Amino acid sequence: MSHRKFRLVGTAVALIATSVLAACSSPAAGPQGALSKPTGSAVAHPEWSQFSFTLGDNGGDGSEELAKVTGAFDDAPYKVKFARFDYGPPLVQAAASGDIDLGSVGTVPPITGAAKEYGFKIVATQRGADPTKAAENILVPKDSSIQSLGDLRGKRIAVPQGSSAHGLALLALKSVGLTPKDVQLVYLSPAAGASAFNTGKVDAWSIWDPQSSVAVGQGARIIAKGVPPIDQSNNYYVATDKSLGDPVRRAALADVLTRVARIFNWAQQNPDEYAKAISKETGVPQKDARATVDSFPFKITQFLPEDVKAEQALSDAFFEAGEITKRVDLTTISDNLLPDGFDSSKSS
């Protein structure tokens, strides 16, 4: 997301996409006839024409390609561009500095970001629709003697530091009475983690899709899924305080987020097109991209009190494990850009 979901294997911190989705006078739906109902914001809010928004794409989640296919921003009075990140922590840093306006991340990056007093807020939830399906897992090689989480004692576990997969590792260990001191956490980027896992330099790997799906396809076994009761099956949207603090820009950014919600609602109704978009952005085989899509059905809603509670519990677990040096009060980074009762699964 992890982004828990759809992180691209790579080493670059961020790649600013060159394409810009500019405003036009009328909506132009994609070749599949997507999103034929415009919001009308171009007519209602001509003052938004002064704005340009940068959206953080967490490792190739398909959002840029899907925006083109659906025509979601074709009638927008503002401009939109995309910036791609390997995973969540640098995306949150970019939101804090105002280099991006909005982006989706997993459960942990907002916590580690807030521990450094970054200037951002969590503004919406990408809510897992099926509590049995996980977008990230803890894996072991097919011939490993490790059969359960308890067998991880004394083992080397690769995790992308400060990511939702890092959080999954901590919570999974805690669920069987282990702490980070009982194992060796090896902090590696997704690409380095794949190499270490495939060459036997680590005993286990906590990672998201599509990397998880690729590894499982090559024989790796899942010993823990990122689902309740171990972990929450949500991701979150973060926005920069620089945009949230300006009432006019904030209203326009809310329009951006509702369009993003419509994009992903359409995508989940058209999973093959969704997988094509992810495959095009990441270079992963389309079958693995489709496994990624199938692994995490979701809808986009407000950041609700139950989400604040779940994030607070995760934050406290990170603090208790010594992974962050200050306790984070989630209410200080909580906000909502979406209207009360918003549910992307009911949008068109």
UniProtKB/TrEMBL annotation:
<comment type="similarity">
    <text>Belongs to the bacterial solute-binding protein SsuA/TauA family.</text>
</comment>
<keyword id="KW-0732">Signal</keyword>
<comment type="function">
    <text>Part of a binding-protein-dependent transport system for aliphatic sulfonates. Putative binding protein.</text>
</comment>
<feature type="signal peptide">
    <location>
        <begin position="1"/>
        <end position="22"/>
    </location>
</feature>
<feature type="domain" description="Solute-binding protein family 3/N-terminal">
    <location>
        <begin position="52"/>
        <end position="285"/>
    </location>
</feature>
<dbReference type="Pfam" id="PF09084">
    <property type="entry name" value="NMT1"/>
</dbReference>
<dbReference type="GO" id="GO:0042597">
    <property type="term" value="C:periplasmic space"/>
</dbReference>
<dbReference type="GO" id="GO:0016020">
    <property type="term" value="C:membrane"/>
</dbReference>
<dbReference type="InterPro" id="IPR015168">
    <property type="entry name" value="SsuA/THI5"/>
</dbReference>
<keyword id="KW-0813">Transport</keyword>
<dbReference type="GO" id="GO:0042626">
    <property type="term" value="F:ATPase-coupled transmembrane transporter activity"/>
</dbReference>
<protein>
    <recommendedName>
        <fullName>Putative aliphatic sulfonates-binding protein</fullName>
    </recommendedName>
</protein>
<dbReference type="InterPro" id="IPR001638">
    <property type="entry name" value="Solute-binding_3/MltF_N"/>
</dbReference>
<dbReference type="InterPro" id="IPR010067">
    <property type="entry name" value="ABC_SsuA_sub-bd"/>
</dbReference>
